[in-house]
Amino acid sequence: MSVPTSDGGTALRALSRRYARHPGWSALAVGAGVTQTLATIVLATLLAHLLHALIIEKQALAGLNDAWLAILPCLLVRAVAGVVREEAGLRTSLAVRSALRAALLDRLYALGPAWVQQRPGGALNAALLEQVEAVDGYFARYRPQQWLATLTPLLIAAAIAPSSWAAAAILLLTAPLIPLFMILVGWGARQRQSEQFQILQRMGGHFLDLIRGLPTLRLLDAHRRMGDEVAGVADEYRQRTMRVLRLAFLSGAVLEFFASLAIALSAVYFGMSLLGYLDFGLYGEPPTLELAMFALLLAPEFYQPLRDLGTHYHARAEAQAAASDLLAILDESGGQAAGGRRRIGPAAPALTLAEVSFAHRPEALLLRACSLHVDAGEAVAIRGASGGGKTTLLRLLLGQLSTGAGRILVDGLALDSLDLAAWRERVAWMNQHPRLIAGSLGDNLRIARLNATDDELVAAIGFAGLAPWFAALPDGLATRLGEGGRQLSGGQLRRLALARVYLRRADVLLLDEPTASLDPATEAWVVARLAELRRGRTLILLTHRQAPLGIVDRVVELANGCLHPADTGQSSKEFAAS
Fold first, then answer.
1. Would you say 161 and 343 are in contact if contact means Cβ atoms under 8 Å apart?
2. Three-state secondary structure along 517-532?
3. Global pTM value
4. CATH number for 427
């Protein structure tokens, strides 16, 4: 069950419990902060003593060499502790972000490509990049600062209290004002930050869709209009970002004001005590400049951790806004089948769908009690209207989606009991829209089989009819194809997909519209190659066209969510020939 997006605090705590398991670096960050505080107390003691000796006791500088020399180690300790504290916080954040990003990728892999494709690509990219980075400030600075905001004021109050309980009381009584106003201002910042992340996700998805559709927009001469729309969306995002920043700076100004007011109260108390107007809070002892300077030097350090906590509070609000969406993905149910450990035999398997039902949404059933048996080595074509669920059937066979009801059997074994990774290695998939990665020709072919040799890749290229094209490439298998195959025609893309199927050495072929958008001559050539590949293999073919039906043994129809034999009045090969 996903955490509601509005409950960012609960989501952030859940992420912390799961991925912030780095007590060593966290303890080091807090310990370094405490060391800074102790060094500051010693430094304030030395400075107060020096000023009192020089101003009140009129001592010579030469007689205070020991105190002067002791200041340098204090400053050095403060500096080193500050560096260690910052580094430990960054190491904690880096470890958390790495673990979180790895968990997201693992979860997306577990959910499967079918689930991923149903979500806006820009939103998932924003989650993996922007939203994971949004928790950086929380784990690197805010969480250690929570401890220091408690420990540092208590240490400083404990150092001042033996000399003046009134000064310590002023500090302790005014301290809650800063976190109080920090929380009041932070509520608004958290809401604005949540809205900002939602807008960023929508904007990322919008931009990604525009980039994917840019060739079409150019053909329709709509790219200039869409460019203006992108500029408008970006400007709106800029304005909202500035509103969030204004709120963050406002919170900083409020915290500075109350911290300055509290320090002023301490200064007034000691000023009135030194002038003789106040005579309480000093345990009956007369006030001295050394005591006053000691307390006033430590007063800013008393409030500094609280001010730093307020400064980093927007990092907590940002992390809460991101945590809700991240945890929603991590706790997402559904997706592809879980799988087991069983494996099928080495021969081409039989496939069975037994009363399988499926719905992307509970209120809209896509497949209704579909039953189909494909014998080992048999080839079956499935026809039906676009959007009727044909591709969903193939994704169910791959285990990329889980059935709502019914069972899928592979050689008599339930699909959800199989080792799905091993099962998919036995399957070759050819999509009607082949995808290429932004790599070389060899990289794109080795998607089918990672350990394929160069000779095997060249053989696959020849099988797909790309040998003349390959011979003209100056860099051979190292030729960069570009993301999306921008350097290839539609026919070349389809042939490259065919080469992948050849390399796969699979026992099951799942072909989704393998000849869509091809001219008759190219289609006939591809069908002939598929006829070679299907020998000894189990084949399920989705098609709207007649030519591919010549290589199948029978045809079934998918209509209204149900499978039934095609009413062609003739065999599939006769049907294709007609």
1. no
2. CCCHHHHHHHHHHHHH
3. 0.67
4. 3.40.50.300
Q: Which residues contact 185 (CB under 8 A, 6 or more apart)?
A: 247, 250, 251, 254, 313
Q: Which domain holds residue 44?
A: 8-330
Helix (H, G, I), strand (E, B) or coil at 427: strand
* pLDDT surpassing 60 at residue 6: no
Tokens of 174: 């005014």
Sort strands 413-414 and 427-430 into parallel, antiparallel or unpaired. unpaired
Quote the Cα angle for 163-154-169, to 5°. Answer: 50
Q: Token pair 């990672």 is at which residue?
A: 450
Give the pLDDT band (50/70/90) at residue 554. very high
Q: Residue 276 belongs to a domain with what CATH number? A: 1.20.1560.10
Helix (H) and strand (E) counts in the chain: 21, 10
Please, which pLDDT band fits residue 576 given cuts at 50, 70 and 90? very low
The alpha-carbon radius of gyration of the chain (Å, integer) is 35
Does one domain contain both 145 and 60? yes
- As given in the structure block, the two tokens for residue 74 are 């204090």
- Give the 3-state DSSP-derived string for 68-126, with helices as H, strands as E and coil as C: HHHHHHHHHHHHHHHHHHHHHHHHHHHHHHHHHHHHHHHHHHHHHHHHHHCCCHHHHHH
Q: How far apart are CA 98 and CA 352, in angstroms?
A: 42
Indicate whether 157 pLDDT > 60. yes
Q: How far apart are CA 578 and CA 576, in angstroms?
A: 5
Look at residue 493 and tell me if it is in a domain.
Answer: yes
Cβ distance 151 to 31 under 8 Å?
no
Q: What are phi and psi of 405, to 5 degrees?
A: -155, 160
**Same domain as 228, residue 102:** yes
Cα gap 448→459, rounded to integer Å: 14
% the chain with pLDDT above 70: 87
User: pLDDT digit string (tens) for 116-134?
Assistant: 777 766 677 778 888 888 8
Cα gap 514→84, rounded to integer Å: 60
Output DSSP code: residue 142.
I
Q: 40-82: per-residue pLDDT in tens?
A: 999 999 999 898 888 888 887 777 778 888 899 999 999 999 9
Residue 346 tokens read as 């080495």
CA triplet 52, 55, 60: central angle to 5 degrees? 95
Joined together, the tokens standing for residue 125 give 């990219």
Per-residue pLDDT, 2:
39
Tell whether 313 and 413 lie within a shared domain: no
Contact status, residue 128 vs residue 107, Cβ threshold 8 Å: no
Q: Judge residue 278's burial from the number of C-beta atoms within 10 Å of its C-beta, 0-12 exposed, 13-18 middle, 19 or more buried.
A: middle
574, pLDDT greater than 70: no
